[in-house]
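note to self — DONT lose this again. spent like an hour looking for the file last time. sequence + predicted structure for the chain T wanted, 121 res
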Amino acid sequence: MTHPLSAEIDEIRGLLSEKEMASGDLSSAFTKARRRLPRHVFRQGMLLARARPLLDHPKLALTVDNKKLDQAAKDVLSHLRSVDLAERRKDRWLGVLGSVAFSLLAVAALFILVLRWRGFV
């Protein structure tokens, strides 16, 4: 008999590989996606990863806190379902363009400052 949380954990594993490009078992996938996940989602994901082997064992499954794991699974699933890859890609490009624009403005300002300091302007 499989534990009811096993299906949710498998869905989380699929969403991690799809949305966060994190492969491997659940623990290593959360570790790979750690920087892109909010801290509370990462902690709850690691709680689920630590509980996963216990859920597969019939007697050890009785020792886990089902209420806490259910809440953790709901929080992780809601976050992973809300991730929009297109928005993330757009934000990344806008960040790069913002950095380039700031760098160009800083170089232009320094160039004008040097010209004024040398007496050409």
